[in-house]
Amino acid sequence: MRKIFPLALVFAAVSLLSISCSTDYDASPEVAGKDTIRNPFQGDFTAIVNGVQFTADTKSFTDNTVNNIRSVSFSGTQDSYNKDPKTNSTITVVIPNYTGPHSYAVDGGMSGGGTGMYIAMDSGTTKNYVAKPNDSLSVINITSDGDKWEGSFNFVAAPSGSGDADNIIISQGSFSIPR
Hints:
The chain is mainly β. Helices cover 9% and strands 48% of the residues.
């Protein structure tokens, strides 16, 4: 009995040391840079499209600088009710010459403004809409570009290649997407 008690104490001490010195479980240790991959389900991206609520399931942004010109874009995709990958809708706003948080007129990317797009995909058939430039109510307003990209937008979009037929009104758009 005298030999078992010290042996049990040694075993208990080794067990405690091995537990306290272990690291957290990592299911995919071979993935380098995995902590820099942004979760596309984080954040908010909403709008009203022709009077119907649009709430994005996935959200994304780009922030690129080429030849000292910084461009940013923000996108939200709303899946169909049954999550059919061939049926969804996407809103994208783009500022090709981003100069910081303030209001950008929707001017098709000309004169320092921005543009917007709406893509509706139904059973694999895509219809593209592009923001009509120089509409006095169309604006992209960036309020924060720190830890989160935050802002709002409104624009009228027309089907690509057409005039005023079948316009779509995108109003009360807002986003808050973490970096």
